[in-house]
Every structure is written in C-alpha cells, then in structure tokens.
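Cross-check.
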Amino acid sequence: MPYPVLEPDPGVPDHYRPDAPPPLVATAREFVAVASWTFASTMPQHPHQYVTRNREAAAGRGAGYDALRDLILEHHCLRDWHGRSFRGVTLGGLTLWVMQTGLIVINAKSAERGDFTPSDPRLFDYL
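Predicted model, tokenized:
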C-alpha cells in the first residue's frame, strides 16, 4: 500500500512567533524542503510524517534539523489536537511540531488554517 505524500499547502501562511531570527527561519525552511520525511505508519488514521536527528545528521542535514527543532521549541505557537497541546509552527505550507519519545521527533503534515491557537509559550514548558 503506497503511503500518502507530504504535500505542502502554499495557501497557508507561515506561523511562528515574531521573535524568531530570520537566519534561523531561513535554515529551517531550507531543511523542510530537503528532509527525508517518513510516513508515520503507526498512525494511519492521522496521516503525518516525521524526521529524526540521527538520520538527518547521517545525511549531512544535522544543522538544518537543529534549526527547525530550535524554531519550534523556542519560537512556537501551540497546536491543540485531541485534548493535548504541542509546540509547533507552520512553515512552507507544512504544520510542524515536536514530540519527545526518548528523542525529539519532528512531525509534519499539510498545513491547514486554524492549526494553531494564540498562546503564551511560558505556559507550555514541559519538553
């Protein structure tokens, strides 16, 4: 069975806090376009893809992964999903968020308007 392709929605504007440094955003944006996204086959009912630092570093993209991770962790908005909140951003037509599963995993799905709610990032600091 073929997995869905990660398709950015260029009609959804970028969404991250305005204090994000432009060089960090540019590096993160470049990484999003070249990362080796993997379909999350354990959650086919909620299609998304993910990347891990180990695989991206082995492919020479560790700095890009770090930039995207830092953008999400330090300049995020909150994404509410099924009663939980996740740090995330919208960049290049993708909604991107982090999860900690022993390591930090960056997840991505096609962006949709309304993926994020206004929030005070100081209230979301357990990761």
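The two ends are 35 Å apart (CA to CA). Residues 123-127 have pLDDT under 50 and may be disordered. Passed to J.P. for a second look.
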